[in-house]
Amino acid sequence: MEKANIYINKLKLKPHPEGGYFRETYRAENTISIECLPERFKTVRAFSTAIYFLLKGNQFSAFHRLKSDEIWHHYSGAPLNIYMIKTDGELKKEVLGKNILKGQQPQIVIKSNIWFAAKPQRTDSFSLIGCTVSPGFDFMDFELADRDRLIDKFPNNADLIKKLTRQ
Fold it and tell me: Which of 42, 53, 59, 63, by CA, is between 20 and 30 Å from 83?
C-alpha cells in the first residue's frame, strides 16, 4: 500500500464520504442556468467537474447515485469492479482497467440516477481513477444508499448491497 499512500500524499487526496480518497482537480468556470437544466437540478451547475479518486484494496465506494452522468477513467493500480443496479433491478458489472484483451475498459460511463458501487479487484493493491461529471458535481446531487431501503427496492441484489453499503 506504500504506492497508494504516495498517490494520496502527492495528489493531496482527502477522505471521501462514499469511501476512499479524492480531490477535485477541475471545475468549469462557466455554468448552466437552472432554466436550461432538467427538473432534477435545483440550482446552477458548472459545465463539468473532475476528480482524482483512489480506493485502497480493502476499501470500496459504497452504493450511491448522482443526478448527473459520470465517466470513470482508470489511471493506475488494480482493475476496479463497478456494480450498477439498473432501475429494473438488473445488476450490471463492468471492469475498469487497462487490459482490454481481458474485457477491461479504460473508461466507463455511469448514467444519472443509477445506483452504483466499486471495489478494487485486488486487496493487496489500490485503484487510482478519475471521475468526470457533467453537468458538474455538487454534493447536493449525491445520495449515499440506505442499506435497508436499497435491499427493499432490489431484494435480488441483497448480498452485494450488504457488502457494498455502510450502516
Answer: 42
